[in-house]
Protein backbone atom coordinates (compact mmCIF):
# COMPACT_ATOMS: atom_id res chain seq x y z
CA UNK A 1 0.00 0.00 0.00
CA UNK A 2 1.43 3.38 -1.02
CA UNK A 3 1.37 5.65 2.01
CA UNK A 4 3.12 8.81 0.97
CA UNK A 5 5.09 10.45 -1.82
CA UNK A 6 7.65 13.10 -1.00
CA UNK A 7 10.95 14.51 -2.22
CA UNK A 8 14.31 14.32 -0.46
CA UNK A 9 17.33 16.12 -1.92
CA UNK A 10 15.38 16.63 -5.17
CA UNK A 11 14.79 12.87 -5.45
CA UNK A 12 11.32 11.28 -5.27
CA UNK A 13 10.70 9.10 -2.21
CA UNK A 14 7.73 6.79 -1.63
CA UNK A 15 6.82 5.25 1.72
CA UNK A 16 5.04 1.90 1.65
CA UNK A 17 3.06 0.28 4.44
CA UNK A 18 3.57 -3.47 4.05
CA UNK A 19 1.57 -6.34 5.53
CA UNK A 20 3.16 -8.95 7.75
CA UNK A 21 2.44 -12.55 6.82
CA UNK A 22 1.73 -14.93 9.69
CA UNK A 23 3.37 -17.86 7.93
CA UNK A 24 2.86 -20.18 10.89
CA UNK A 25 -0.87 -20.19 10.16
CA UNK A 26 -0.33 -21.52 6.64
CA UNK A 27 -0.62 -25.24 6.01
CA UNK A 28 2.52 -27.18 5.15
CA UNK A 29 1.22 -27.91 1.65
CA UNK A 30 0.27 -24.32 0.86
CA UNK A 31 2.33 -22.43 -1.73
CA UNK A 32 1.16 -18.79 -1.81
CA UNK A 33 1.46 -16.68 -4.93
CA UNK A 34 3.19 -13.31 -5.01
CA UNK A 35 1.91 -11.23 -7.93
CA UNK A 36 3.69 -8.25 -9.50
CA UNK A 37 1.78 -6.20 -12.06
CA UNK A 38 3.17 -3.44 -14.25
CA UNK A 39 0.04 -1.34 -14.97
CA UNK A 40 1.97 0.67 -17.56
CA UNK A 41 2.57 -2.38 -19.76
CA UNK A 42 0.17 -3.47 -22.47
CA UNK A 43 -1.96 -0.33 -22.55
CA UNK A 44 -4.77 -0.66 -20.00
CA UNK A 45 -4.46 -4.45 -19.73
CA UNK A 46 -1.94 -4.24 -16.91
CA UNK A 47 -4.33 -2.14 -14.87
CA UNK A 48 -7.16 -4.59 -15.57
CA UNK A 49 -5.04 -7.48 -14.31
CA UNK A 50 -4.08 -5.55 -11.18
CA UNK A 51 -7.74 -5.09 -10.26
CA UNK A 52 -8.65 -8.63 -11.33
CA UNK A 53 -6.02 -10.36 -9.21
CA UNK A 54 -6.79 -8.17 -6.20
CA UNK A 55 -10.38 -9.39 -6.39
CA UNK A 56 -9.42 -13.06 -6.64
CA UNK A 57 -6.53 -13.10 -4.18
CA UNK A 58 -5.77 -11.40 -0.91
CA UNK A 59 -5.01 -7.83 -2.09
CA UNK A 60 -1.87 -7.82 0.08
CA UNK A 61 -0.22 -10.38 -2.18
CA UNK A 62 -0.74 -8.36 -5.39
CA UNK A 63 1.76 -5.54 -5.89
CA UNK A 64 1.84 -2.65 -8.34
CA UNK A 65 5.50 -2.91 -9.31
CA UNK A 66 5.65 0.79 -10.24
CA UNK A 67 5.18 1.61 -6.53
CA UNK A 68 8.44 0.63 -4.89
CA UNK A 69 9.56 -2.03 -7.35
CA UNK A 70 9.84 -5.77 -6.63
CA UNK A 71 11.54 -5.29 -3.26
CA UNK A 72 8.30 -4.53 -1.38
CA UNK A 73 6.66 -7.82 -2.35
CA UNK A 74 9.76 -9.95 -1.86
CA UNK A 75 10.32 -8.38 1.56
CA UNK A 76 6.73 -9.18 2.54
CA UNK A 77 7.21 -12.85 1.55
CA UNK A 78 10.75 -13.12 2.96
CA UNK A 79 9.91 -15.54 5.81
CA UNK A 80 7.79 -17.98 3.80
CA UNK A 81 9.42 -21.39 3.27
CA UNK A 82 7.91 -21.65 -0.21
CA UNK A 83 6.02 -19.43 -2.62
CA UNK A 84 5.66 -18.74 -6.32
CA UNK A 85 5.91 -15.46 -8.21
CA UNK A 86 3.78 -14.25 -11.10
CA UNK A 87 5.07 -11.27 -13.11
CA UNK A 88 2.55 -9.42 -15.26
CA UNK A 89 4.54 -7.26 -17.67
CA UNK A 90 7.09 -7.37 -20.45
CA UNK A 91 10.44 -9.15 -20.48
CA UNK A 92 11.97 -6.02 -18.96
CA UNK A 93 9.66 -6.27 -15.95
CA UNK A 94 10.55 -9.95 -15.53
CA UNK A 95 14.24 -9.09 -15.71
CA UNK A 96 13.70 -6.41 -13.06
CA UNK A 97 12.18 -8.97 -10.68
CA UNK A 98 14.96 -11.48 -11.40
CA UNK A 99 17.61 -8.84 -10.73
CA UNK A 100 16.17 -7.78 -7.37
CA UNK A 101 15.60 -11.41 -6.40
CA UNK A 102 19.24 -12.15 -7.12
CA UNK A 103 20.37 -9.18 -5.03
CA UNK A 104 18.35 -10.11 -1.91
CA UNK A 105 18.26 -13.89 -2.30
CA UNK A 106 20.33 -14.35 0.86
CA UNK A 107 17.63 -12.60 2.92
CA UNK A 108 14.82 -14.93 1.82
CA UNK A 109 13.91 -18.23 3.47
CA UNK A 110 12.75 -19.42 0.02
CA UNK A 111 15.79 -18.39 -2.00
CA UNK A 112 14.62 -19.68 -5.37
CA UNK A 113 10.89 -19.04 -5.82
CA UNK A 114 9.85 -20.11 -9.33
CA UNK A 115 8.59 -17.31 -11.57
CA UNK A 116 5.72 -17.35 -14.06
CA UNK A 117 4.79 -14.66 -16.57
CA UNK A 118 1.67 -12.98 -17.90
CA UNK A 119 3.13 -11.24 -20.99
CA UNK A 120 2.10 -7.64 -21.58
CA UNK A 121 3.20 -5.32 -24.38
CA UNK A 122 5.33 -6.43 -27.34
CA UNK A 123 8.24 -8.83 -27.74
CA UNK A 124 7.83 -11.16 -24.78
CA UNK A 125 10.41 -13.65 -26.04
CA UNK A 126 10.97 -15.20 -22.62
CA UNK A 127 7.22 -15.66 -22.13
CA UNK A 128 7.01 -17.35 -25.54
CA UNK A 129 9.77 -19.82 -24.67
CA UNK A 130 8.02 -20.66 -21.39
CA UNK A 131 4.71 -21.18 -23.26
CA UNK A 132 2.89 -18.20 -21.73
CA UNK A 133 2.30 -16.82 -25.21
CA UNK A 134 3.14 -13.63 -27.14
CA UNK A 135 0.85 -11.35 -25.15
CA UNK A 136 -2.11 -11.18 -22.81
CA UNK A 137 -5.38 -11.15 -24.73
CA UNK A 138 -7.96 -10.79 -21.99
CA UNK A 139 -7.83 -14.26 -20.43
CA UNK A 140 -9.82 -14.64 -17.21
CA UNK A 141 -7.44 -14.05 -14.26
CA UNK A 142 -8.92 -17.15 -12.60
CA UNK A 143 -7.78 -19.30 -15.53
CA UNK A 144 -4.33 -17.74 -15.27
CA UNK A 145 -4.11 -18.78 -11.62
CA UNK A 146 -5.02 -22.35 -12.54
CA UNK A 147 -2.30 -22.34 -15.22
CA UNK A 148 0.25 -21.07 -12.71
CA UNK A 149 -0.76 -23.79 -10.26
CA UNK A 150 -0.31 -26.47 -12.94
CA UNK A 151 2.90 -25.04 -14.43
CA UNK A 152 6.16 -27.01 -14.51
CA UNK A 153 9.34 -25.74 -12.86
CA UNK A 154 12.36 -25.40 -15.17
CA UNK A 155 15.85 -24.00 -14.72
CA UNK A 156 17.22 -21.11 -16.78
CA UNK A 157 20.69 -19.64 -17.14
CA UNK A 158 21.35 -16.00 -16.30
CA UNK A 159 24.38 -14.06 -17.48
CA UNK A 160 26.48 -11.21 -16.15
CA UNK A 161 27.73 -8.62 -18.65
CA UNK A 162 30.71 -6.50 -17.60
CA UNK A 163 30.88 -3.32 -19.68
CA UNK A 164 34.35 -1.87 -19.28
CA UNK A 165 34.49 1.38 -21.26
CA UNK A 166 38.09 2.37 -21.94
CA UNK A 167 39.92 4.83 -24.13
CA UNK A 168 41.57 2.63 -26.75
CA UNK A 169 44.36 4.07 -28.86
CA UNK A 170 44.71 3.29 -32.55
CA UNK A 171 47.07 0.39 -31.77
CA UNK A 172 44.49 -1.14 -29.42
CA UNK A 173 46.25 -0.28 -26.16
CA UNK A 174 44.28 0.94 -23.16
CA UNK A 175 44.90 4.59 -22.33
CA UNK A 176 42.81 4.52 -19.16
CA UNK A 177 39.23 4.29 -17.98
CA UNK A 178 36.59 6.61 -19.34
CA UNK A 179 34.16 5.49 -16.62
CA UNK A 180 33.91 2.73 -13.99
CA UNK A 181 32.92 -0.71 -15.24
CA UNK A 182 29.18 -1.29 -15.43
CA UNK A 183 27.56 -4.64 -14.68
CA UNK A 184 24.17 -5.70 -16.06
CA UNK A 185 22.29 -8.99 -15.97
CA UNK A 186 20.88 -10.77 -19.02
CA UNK A 187 18.13 -13.36 -19.37
CA UNK A 188 17.26 -13.32 -23.08
CA UNK A 189 19.92 -11.91 -25.39
CA UNK A 190 22.63 -9.31 -25.88
CA UNK A 191 22.93 -7.59 -29.24
CA UNK A 192 25.41 -5.23 -30.90
CA UNK A 193 24.97 -3.30 -34.13
CA UNK A 194 21.89 -3.05 -36.31
CA UNK A 195 19.34 -4.80 -34.07
CA UNK A 196 20.39 -2.64 -31.12
CA UNK A 197 20.23 0.49 -33.28
CA UNK A 198 16.65 -0.31 -34.32
CA UNK A 199 15.75 -0.87 -30.68
CA UNK A 200 17.38 2.44 -29.76
CA UNK A 201 15.42 4.34 -32.42
CA UNK A 202 12.18 2.66 -31.30
CA UNK A 203 12.77 3.58 -27.66
CA UNK A 204 13.54 7.16 -28.64
CA UNK A 205 10.29 7.40 -30.61
CA UNK A 206 8.36 6.01 -27.64
CA UNK A 207 9.96 8.47 -25.23
CA UNK A 208 9.13 11.37 -27.56
CA UNK A 209 5.42 10.45 -27.71
CA UNK A 210 4.57 7.73 -25.15
CA UNK A 211 0.78 8.21 -25.45
CA UNK A 212 0.80 6.67 -28.94
CA UNK A 213 2.50 3.45 -27.83
CA UNK A 214 -0.48 1.75 -26.22
CA UNK A 215 -1.03 -1.20 -28.57
CA UNK A 216 1.08 -4.03 -29.95
CA UNK A 217 -0.15 -3.20 -33.46
CA UNK A 218 1.08 0.41 -33.31
CA UNK A 219 4.37 -0.61 -31.71
CA UNK A 220 5.09 -3.13 -34.46
CA UNK A 221 4.20 -0.53 -37.09
CA UNK A 222 6.72 1.92 -35.66
CA UNK A 223 9.37 -0.81 -35.53
CA UNK A 224 8.77 -1.65 -39.20
CA UNK A 225 9.03 2.04 -40.12
CA UNK A 226 12.32 2.36 -38.24
CA UNK A 227 13.62 -0.75 -39.99
CA UNK A 228 12.76 0.55 -43.45
CA UNK A 229 14.81 3.66 -42.74
CA UNK A 230 17.86 1.44 -42.07
CA UNK A 231 17.69 -0.82 -45.14
CA UNK A 232 20.68 0.84 -46.81
CA UNK A 233 22.55 1.09 -43.51
CA UNK A 234 26.11 -0.28 -43.46
CA UNK A 235 28.76 -0.03 -40.75
CA UNK A 236 30.80 -3.24 -41.27
CA UNK A 237 30.47 -4.31 -37.65
CA UNK A 238 33.06 -7.06 -38.09
CA UNK A 239 35.71 -4.36 -38.53
CA UNK A 240 34.76 -2.56 -35.31
CA UNK A 241 35.07 -5.36 -32.77
CA UNK A 242 37.05 -8.47 -31.89
CA UNK A 243 35.44 -11.60 -30.48
CA UNK A 244 36.79 -14.31 -28.19
CA UNK A 245 34.69 -17.32 -27.16
CA UNK A 246 36.08 -19.53 -24.38
CA UNK A 247 39.51 -17.88 -24.77
CA UNK A 248 39.64 -18.61 -28.52
CA UNK A 249 39.73 -15.85 -31.15
CA UNK A 250 36.72 -16.13 -33.44
CA UNK A 251 36.84 -14.46 -36.88
CA UNK A 252 33.67 -12.62 -37.80
CA UNK A 253 32.01 -12.69 -41.22
CA UNK A 254 30.77 -9.53 -42.93
CA UNK A 255 27.86 -8.71 -40.62
CA UNK A 256 25.91 -5.69 -39.39
CA UNK A 257 24.64 -7.23 -36.16
CA UNK A 258 25.96 -9.69 -33.58
CA UNK A 259 23.59 -11.37 -31.10
CA UNK A 260 24.26 -13.61 -28.11
CA UNK A 261 21.25 -15.81 -27.35
CA UNK A 262 20.30 -17.42 -24.05
CA UNK A 263 16.82 -18.43 -25.22
CA UNK A 264 15.58 -19.76 -28.60
CA UNK A 265 13.36 -16.76 -29.31
CA UNK A 266 14.43 -13.36 -30.58
CA UNK A 267 12.69 -10.34 -32.10
CA UNK A 268 9.15 -11.30 -31.01
CA UNK A 269 9.34 -15.04 -31.53
CA UNK A 270 11.86 -15.56 -34.34
CA UNK A 271 14.21 -18.57 -34.31
CA UNK A 272 17.48 -16.78 -35.01
CA UNK A 273 19.72 -19.82 -34.44
CA UNK A 274 17.57 -22.13 -36.55
CA UNK A 275 16.65 -25.79 -36.18
CA UNK A 276 19.13 -27.27 -38.67
CA UNK A 277 21.56 -29.85 -37.24
CA UNK A 278 25.07 -29.01 -38.45
CA UNK A 279 27.24 -31.42 -36.45
CA UNK A 280 29.40 -28.62 -35.01
CA UNK A 281 26.99 -27.18 -32.47
CA UNK A 282 24.69 -28.60 -29.82
CA UNK A 283 20.95 -28.02 -29.69
CA UNK A 284 20.31 -24.79 -27.74
CA UNK A 285 18.67 -24.99 -24.33
CA UNK A 286 17.85 -22.37 -21.70
CA UNK A 287 19.81 -24.30 -19.04
CA UNK A 288 22.85 -25.63 -20.93
CA UNK A 289 25.27 -22.95 -19.62
CA UNK A 290 25.98 -21.91 -23.21
CA UNK A 291 25.29 -18.84 -25.30
CA UNK A 292 24.63 -19.06 -29.02
CA UNK A 293 26.53 -16.43 -31.05
CA UNK A 294 24.73 -15.40 -34.24
CA UNK A 295 25.26 -12.75 -36.91
CA UNK A 296 22.87 -10.88 -39.20
CA UNK A 297 23.84 -9.05 -42.38
CA UNK A 298 21.32 -6.22 -42.12
CA UNK A 299 17.67 -5.20 -41.89
CA UNK A 300 16.58 -7.37 -44.83
CA UNK A 301 18.20 -10.43 -43.25
CA UNK A 302 16.50 -9.64 -39.93
CA UNK A 303 13.16 -9.39 -41.70
CA UNK A 304 13.71 -12.74 -43.37
CA UNK A 305 14.52 -14.32 -40.00
CA UNK A 306 11.40 -12.87 -38.42
CA UNK A 307 9.35 -14.14 -41.37
CA UNK A 308 10.75 -17.65 -40.96
CA UNK A 309 12.48 -17.59 -44.36
CA UNK A 310 16.06 -17.74 -43.06
CA UNK A 311 18.02 -18.15 -39.88
CA UNK A 312 20.99 -16.15 -38.68
CA UNK A 313 24.65 -16.89 -39.37
CA UNK A 314 25.87 -19.33 -36.73
CA UNK A 315 29.22 -18.23 -35.37
CA UNK A 316 29.91 -20.06 -32.09
CA UNK A 317 28.64 -21.46 -28.80
CA UNK A 318 30.36 -20.84 -25.48
CA UNK A 319 30.07 -19.78 -21.85
CA UNK A 320 32.75 -17.08 -21.58
CA UNK A 321 32.68 -14.23 -24.08
CA UNK A 322 35.12 -11.35 -24.46
CA UNK A 323 34.54 -8.49 -26.91
CA UNK A 324 36.81 -5.57 -27.73
CA UNK A 325 35.10 -2.53 -29.27
CA UNK A 326 37.22 -0.06 -31.21
CA UNK A 327 34.37 2.42 -31.79
CA UNK A 328 31.11 3.40 -30.05
CA UNK A 329 28.50 0.78 -30.97
CA UNK A 330 24.75 0.52 -30.23
CA UNK A 331 24.07 -2.39 -27.87
CA UNK A 332 20.98 -3.79 -26.18
CA UNK A 333 20.36 -6.18 -23.31
CA UNK A 334 16.93 -7.81 -23.25
CA UNK A 335 15.53 -4.95 -25.31
CA UNK A 336 17.12 -2.09 -23.32
CA UNK A 337 19.42 -0.18 -25.73
CA UNK A 338 22.21 2.37 -25.40
CA UNK A 339 25.45 3.45 -27.12
CA UNK A 340 28.43 1.59 -25.66
CA UNK A 341 31.80 3.43 -25.80
CA UNK A 342 34.98 1.69 -26.99
CA UNK A 343 36.42 -0.84 -24.55
CA UNK A 344 35.90 -4.39 -23.40
CA UNK A 345 32.77 -6.44 -22.75
CA UNK A 346 32.85 -9.73 -20.85
CA UNK A 347 29.88 -12.11 -20.62
CA UNK A 348 29.92 -14.94 -18.08
CA UNK A 349 27.49 -17.07 -16.08
CA UNK A 350 25.66 -15.19 -13.32
CA UNK A 351 25.78 -17.60 -10.40
CA UNK A 352 23.05 -20.20 -9.85
CA UNK A 353 20.39 -20.88 -12.46
CA UNK A 354 16.98 -19.35 -11.78
CA UNK A 355 13.74 -21.31 -11.44
CA UNK A 356 11.03 -20.40 -13.90
CA UNK A 357 7.48 -21.65 -14.43
CA UNK A 358 6.69 -23.13 -17.84
CA UNK A 359 3.03 -23.43 -18.74
CA UNK A 360 2.01 -27.07 -18.81
CA UNK A 361 0.94 -28.71 -22.06
CA UNK A 362 -1.41 -30.99 -20.18
CA UNK A 363 -5.11 -30.27 -20.23
CA UNK A 364 -6.10 -28.32 -17.15
CA UNK A 365 -8.06 -30.59 -14.84
CA UNK A 366 -8.05 -28.74 -11.58
CA UNK A 367 -11.02 -26.70 -10.50
CA UNK A 368 -10.86 -23.27 -8.98
CA UNK A 369 -11.25 -24.75 -5.50
CA UNK A 370 -8.22 -26.93 -6.05
CA UNK A 371 -5.88 -24.11 -7.00
CA UNK A 372 -3.31 -23.52 -4.29
CA UNK A 373 -2.97 -19.94 -5.45
CA UNK A 374 -6.62 -19.03 -4.84
CA UNK A 375 -8.08 -16.82 -2.16
CA UNK A 376 -8.74 -19.80 0.12
CA UNK A 377 -5.01 -20.33 0.59
CA UNK A 378 -3.81 -16.76 0.49
CA UNK A 379 -1.32 -15.79 3.18
CA UNK A 380 -2.91 -14.28 6.28
CA UNK A 381 -1.87 -10.62 6.56
CA UNK A 382 -1.46 -8.68 9.75
CA UNK A 383 -1.72 -4.95 9.45
CA UNK A 384 1.70 -4.02 10.73
CA UNK A 385 4.00 -1.77 8.73
CA UNK A 386 7.72 -2.16 8.13
From TrEMBL:
GO terms for biological process: glycerolipid metabolic process; phospholipase C-activating G protein-coupled receptor signaling pathway. Residues 354-386 are annotated as: Disordered. It catalyses: 1,2-di-(9Z-octadecenoyl)-sn-glycerol + ATP = 1,2-di-(9Z-octadecenoyl)-sn-glycero-3-phosphate + ADP + H(+); a 1,2-diacyl-sn-glycerol + ATP = a 1,2-diacyl-sn-glycero-3-phosphate + ADP + H(+). Its main location: membrane. It comes from Perca flavescens (American yellow perch). Residues 28-165 form the DAGKc domain. It is found in: Membrane. Residues 367-386 have a biased composition (Low complexity). Pfam families: DAGK_acc (PF00609), DAGK_cat (PF00781). Its EC number is 2.7.1.107. Residues 355-366 have a biased composition (Basic residues). PANTHER family: DIACYLGLYCEROL KINASE, DIACYLGLYCEROL KINASE THETA. This is Diacylglycerol kinase. Belongs to the eukaryotic diacylglycerol kinase family. Keywords: ATP-binding, Kinase, Membrane, Metal-binding, Nucleotide-binding, Transferase, Zinc, Zinc-finger. Pathway: Lipid metabolism; glycerolipid metabolism. GO terms for molecular function: ATP binding; ATP-dependent diacylglycerol kinase activity; zinc ion binding. GO terms for cellular component: membrane. SMART domains: DAGKa, DAGKc.
